[in-house]
Amino acid sequence: MPHLSSICPAWPLMLFLSLAMQPGFSQNYVYTYAGDGSPGYVDGDASVARFNTPFGIALGPDGSLYLADGGNHAIRKVSPEGVVSTYAGTGVAGHADGPASAAQFNSPINLCFGPEGNMYVSDFQNQRIRKITPAGEVSTIAGDGFAGYEDGPALRARFNYPRGICIDNQGNLYVGDSWNHRIRKISAGGTVSTWAGGGTAMGVQSVGSYVDAAGTDARFYTPTELSIDEEGNIYAADAYNHRIRKISPSQIVTTLAGSGGSGPNAGGFQDGPGDEARFDVPTTCHVTPSGGVFVGDGSNNRVRKITPGGYVSTFAGTGEAGFQDGPDTLAQFDFPRGIALDTSRSRLYVVDYNNHAIRYIQLEPATGAQEVGDINFQVYPNPFNGQVTITLGQEMSNLAIAVSNATGQVVYAKRHIPGKAFDIGLASLPPGLYYLSARQGGKTLVAKKLIKR
């Protein structure tokens, strides 16, 4: 059957105009930020830059985007002005520590930033976790370079194609150890342990399973990207279980969204409540400061959204593989992978893997940056320079306050605050846009923008 747009070229425009005229209708728009659809290795202005099967993406403390450019064996940087450069790696597959310009990677796949500005990289085919300091020094912090499964001292530990990576407020790293079907933990002290997942199935193309349970009693099937919220909950894109899983700080594994069978070909597509929704090889997830989760639903060629209440909807993409900008309902992707939210620009960046491009969804209204909540909650002064005072209209208990920067990284947290007024000291934060949230019992009560002068 021919595509409708080939029968009637005006159909997409007519559909959009029809929708746009409906009361209350609004759409987000998809744009291409960098990459032209062809693989390559070109630095320079985003309009001419090229990538090669890029994977993970993260927003750095400086407001730049950093990309794990797997096929080019390099970490690329896109400045806020849209200039692409090589941040680390020579472009040749290998393993070498040292200055970023001489260091070598082998298919870097995901990355994250720690509170001190260090970048951590899952070096996929090197079976290692690497660290890049703000000064540009690359080192190996975990993994001995051989595929396997071994806990213990970090440099003697073994992984089986590590993928997702995230970091908590105490400096512990968590890794989606894809073909060991486990989530591993690298403590700040340098010890690797198994955080969640178990079983005897290990090795490339081994068959994982699906069990919600505590710690090593849980089961995964090729967990990929990880994301962590202000409470320390880890979200895992469980690719071949076609689900998004959640791991609490007490290591309890539950399913946030997704249903159906397990296996590479068992995925599907359905929006709706989390226990009815279906995904098809989701390989990325990104939790926002307000508790929503964006999902790169790979084989469905869509970006999906899970609300804090667990409802799944399609955020962008028609479901047909392609390379098309435009309104979110008409835009096309070809296996979306990494996702990063930039609240300062109201943009959701998406790594479009098979299109070798970085796309972005311009958010209207600004997702994750709007003020929400219906309780009497005052913050002043705003803009601020140092101390911020919070006043409540009523006495509240078990209140958790968190302040995140534009990358979504928590830079201040205070829990279980009683009373009706209290101060938080933020003088050490650099100027910029921040996002304050107040949660009680796991529910976001208030979300506000803060501006540091």
Keywords:
single chain, 2 helices, five-stranded antiparallel β-sheet, mainly beta
Strands side by side in the biggest sheet:
26-1-29-28-27
Give the number of helices.
Answer: 2
Low-pLDDT segments:
1-25, 365-374
As a percent range, the share of strand residues is: 35-45%
- The total of beta strands comes to 34
Radius of gyration: 21 Å
* Overall average pLDDT: 88
Cα(first) to Cα(last) distance is: 58 Å
Structural classification = mainly beta
Helicity, in percent? under 10%
What is the overall silhouette? globular
Biggest sheet features? 5 strands, antiparallel
Structure characterization notes:
This protein is mainly beta and 453 residues long. It is built from two helices and 34 strands. The strands form seven sheets. The protein has a five-stranded antiparallel beta sheet, with no helix packed on it. The longest helix is centred in the first third of the chain and has 10 residues. The radius of gyration is 21 Å and the shape is globular. The relative contact order is 0.11. The N terminus is likely disordered.
List the helices and strands and how they pair.
Layout: H1 4-7, H2 11-20, E1 29-34, E2 44-45, E3 57-59, E4 65-69, E5 74-78, E6 83-88, E7 98-99, E8 108-113, E9 119-123, E10 128-132, E11 137-142, E12 152-153, E13 162-167, E14 173-177, E15 182-186, E16 191-196, E17 223-228, E18 234-238, E19 243-247, E20 253-257, E21 272-273, E22 282-287, E23 293-297, E24 302-306, E25 311-316, E26 326-327, E27 336-342, E28 347-352, E29 357-362, E30 377-380, E31 387-404, E32 410-425, E33 432-440, E34 443-452
